[in-house]
Amino acid sequence: MADSLETALAKIRPHTSSSLPHQKTPATLLHALEATFREQNTQPSPTAYFAALLTTIEGALQAAPTSGPPLGDGDVLPAILYLLALVTPHVSHPVIRAHLDTTISLTSPLFPTLVSHAPPLRSQLGLYGAIFQALERPQLESQGLRQSFNFILQLTLDPRPKVRKKACEIVKEVLANPPAPLLQHPYAQRVADWSISALGEVNTGAPVKFKGKKAETDNPDTAIHLLAFLRPVLPTLPAASLPSLTSSLLLLPRLGNPYLAQSAYSLLSDLLSSAVDDPSSGIREQLSDILDAVLSSSPAKTDTVLAPVWAAVLGNAMLALYATDSEKSAKDVNKAWKAAWPLLEFQDTETRKAAAQALNQVGQCFAPSLIKSALAEKAGQEKKSVIGKIVAQTTKAFDALSLARSILELLAVVSSLIDNLRYRGGSRTSPTASEQLLLPLIAKVGDLRVQKTFEYKEAADATLSTAMRVLGPEVLLKALPLDLEPADRQAGREPRAFLLPLLSQPHPSPLGHFLAYFVPLTERMFDLQQTAESAGRKSEAKVWSVLVEQIWQGLPGYCWGPPDLQKALTPEFAQLLSQLLYNQTELRPAILRALKTLIESNLAIASGDLTKLPESVRVDVISEAEAEQNVKFLRGQAESWLAVLFNVFSSAGRDSQGMVGDVVSVWAGIAGEQEIARAYIKLVDLFKQNLVKTSKSAGAKGLENITAVTQDLLVLVLPHLSSVDATALFDLCLKSEVLESRDNGVQKRGYKILAKLVEGEKATVDVDAVLRQLDGVADGLAAAAKKDRFQLLTRLVPLIPPAHLHLMLSVIPEAVLGTKEPSEKARNVAFDLIVVMGKKMNEGGVVKRSAVDGMDQDGAPEATASLDEYMTMIAGGLAGATPHMISATVTAISRLVFEFKDSLSLQMQKDIFTTLLVFVTSANREIVKSVLGFVKLAIHTMAADLLRPHLKELVPALLRWSHDHKNHFKAKVRHIFERMLRRFGWEDVYACAGEEDARKVLVNIKKRKDRAKRKKAMNADNEDEEEPASKPSGGDAFEDVLYGSESELDDSDDDVPAARNARSEKSKNNSGGARIRMDDNEPMDLLHGAAARLTNAKGGKRRKPGQDAARFKTDEDSGKMVIDEDEEAADEVAAADDAYKESLTSADGFTRGPNGRIKFNKDTKKRRRENEEADADVEMGEADAAGGKKNKRRTEAKLGQEFKAKKAGGDVKKGGVEPYAYLSLSQAAKKQGRKRVGIAGKR
């Protein structure tokens, strides 16, 4: 029986004693059916349950009165339908088809009776949902089945949400899964005709006829239900029915219901989106009529509900028309743009966003004819072309007061225009239409960006980023120069350093531009940096350093398949890059990315796999022949670049070597065999030399580092070695000098190289000799190398010949002990090794016991390899001499049982369980901890019939540890019993508990479980059948079963969860509108430059520079601020602090637990003594004050105390720092509040 069905039935069985009739009756019926199975010696299976339930429902209908069967909560028929809906999805399809006539004859007549009873009606719907999935084409034509489907179709408009949702889901699943070999379900046309008829009745105002519970609902509500049903089934309806559906949808907004119009437009938008992707869509012929209808029904300026969806329909209609006939759609571009543009003036943010998206979609419909007509216009004349007018309108919009709140959307429109005008009239070297038409507009955005009062700098950066990606820096920097050098600042030009971070994205500019423009610029900046450093201007030097770094960060953007690679990558430029890699560590990441991008982009283009490239590169890519020439050119430089990268790798830190290693792998991939061989020989010679030096001089950190770095480089070139070199490297790393090295890093990398060589299958490996040699070096193994050793063994085990499986006997003890390693990674690999050995044994073979060293009997018989034999070999560790070995063996057996639960024989599973059951009573906690994990897994994994006979021994043994808190045994045992109660039921488990105290433990667990259920159901609807959200898993099924499934019960004994304060959500729409920015020093012209004169910020007080400083007095002579120390405020803070401490520590105080409960402090002797001592301190202090003695109580340091002069009344510099440099003005300017009294009576 399927695990999912057994899990579902296990949740029903415990409800026989429930006080709720609708829970008790199905549980009682299920127990009765299972008792019948046991009497008849029938194996419980989905088919058996299905047949028994059909017989039961037939008897129940025959015994029902003539008025109809009772359908209350505690009646039998709803319980039968509930179990049928649960079981039928797990029944095989041939069985359902064989019993179809019986099922339909018994259940189909119940539909009219069930209409007024929602729970059994939903069960009936679930039953038919499973039946429809199992049928073939001929059976779908039966009269009873078609009538049942028509009834279900009518229920999609039922006023009850759950019934309606269930019916919609069934119709959707039926249409989405047609019987093979049909591509469309036979009922699809029926659903389409019914939907068109229902929409027609809604449009005419007639009440829609449906078979369901009548409710006081009007046509708009029914239409909304109908549209909600149509949305998921639209893709499955016949294409011929879509035109009629579309016509009906266009009429719905005229009914005047805003939500209905919104739903209709949204559904129409989905229809049009599907028409873009599906050339065979039936609505393509009427797209022009749809567009005309949409344009004629534009929303009012106050309709913020309908406007966003209307804009979406308009944009999708234009895209669909453009996909059908691009030249025909060009005639409607101007009308669509004019219709969508006024939406930008709406106050509603969502409407403006939808308008910008619609304008973007209209911009995607710019046909080549429109672009050519715009390019043909001269610069000075009035724009008459469609695109010319659009560009002019967008340019003027930035100065329009009516669009001041829409600057974000306008910038998005400019981005879409730049993106949609990529058109080049000729070759790749021809300028784009964006360059010829939009450069003034882009320059305007750049000018806005440098204005200090402009608020939307991030949006402007996004627009300029699009321009950089489409035009490239070579074009963009001509319109918007950087102006970063001192001469530019002296001329009064604003710098545009914000353009530098945009360079790193892919763009069409050639690599030669970087070489000609940016390399000289960085050299001049570097000179300025050196000059500033020599003059002691560190801040200025840092600025130039950051600018140089940002420029070099843009180098990768030039390297996506550059057309001038062979001209630009000159020996001088390559030498410059090498020097920067060596000397400038902060520039190293950018240069490495550039070198990697050069290789990968040209390889992708040469192979024709453009999916690996960014979309902006795919649009404007070089030819495959040019890319092949680039790869050939780079291959010629591979050897010299590998030498450079090797040197950089050896000098880089551990954190940076991974980045360098990636570039080494990429360049090694295009290098020739001779170049790789020469590089390999150099690395091996260097490795041997340093290995000998390391062994002679222990503790030489420099030599150990060089040896480890050489091994890392060998790992990088491994995939490209020849078989001869790979075999030689394998033999070298297998030597004891490597695997028993005193340097842990050398050992780790040695095992890693061996594992990768075995995995690559290039080296010739003698498994027998390798395993023997590995066994010989096991004594010198470092703890850090265990994970890599386990990985090597995991790669070697599949290579063992079937006739030499006895070799695994030497690996098993090491693998078993590896499951108890402190390192999680080592443990996981050890588990993988154990599983791999099990799979190898399951493949078959021979275990020659006589060939194993140390066997007592020389003539031991051979054993046939199998999982049972492997489990016997593993179980030998249970006789280990140490508890650690026994515990590790139990853990290994648990992993194998979980992995091979379906392959192990029942007798072996029984033997394993009975054997490990003995260890539950062990006195060693390490052993018991592992055995508890096994028991937990066994209850989850093994068959219930196999475990049930052993409950009498298992339950008392577990109860022995139910009061032991050490090692969390109490919690572990409780979790096990919770699983056991769910699996075997309360009665069976409770009957096995012997002593009265033990029974109390189980009763307590049951009470806690019931309490948790009450908490979950407190705020839930009784009829809600949705499954609770599953807990996130850790990614490893074995770990989740063994450790992750903690108790679902809360440790708290409260029945009512603590209430939490809900924080009110802020309104997302900023409907306050644009406000005038106040500027005291500059006159304002609202007719020009409105984008920089208005703000969307709230009209509250804005903090001005120097606002805090204005509160202080100033010295008339020096102009310095005079700050008075506020002693009363400091005393107030101290008093509040004392009150808080007293509330936590005194006998009258209290604390709050994690669930919000108040827990008062206990009145203990220690706490009373502390209070008395505190009171004595206070009294002593008062007595000292009265006696004229000085109070020795330490006072807190005041603000700026460290700057106070010792022999003068003012402040002094300390360490070259002014006294006001690190003093918070807002803190020092805190107003004096009235004195407060703490709860302890202290001021």
Automatic annotation (TrEMBL):
Key word Nucleus present: yes
Region (Disordered): 1011-1123, 1145-1201
Domain of life: Eukaryota
Annotated RRP12 HEAT domain residues: 347-651
Keyword annotations: Nucleus
Main localisation: nucleus
Annotated RRP12 N-terminal HEAT domain residues: 16-274
Basic and acidic residues bias locations: 1110-1123
Membership in a protein family: Belongs to the RRP12 family.
Designated name of the protein: Ribosomal RNA-processing protein 12
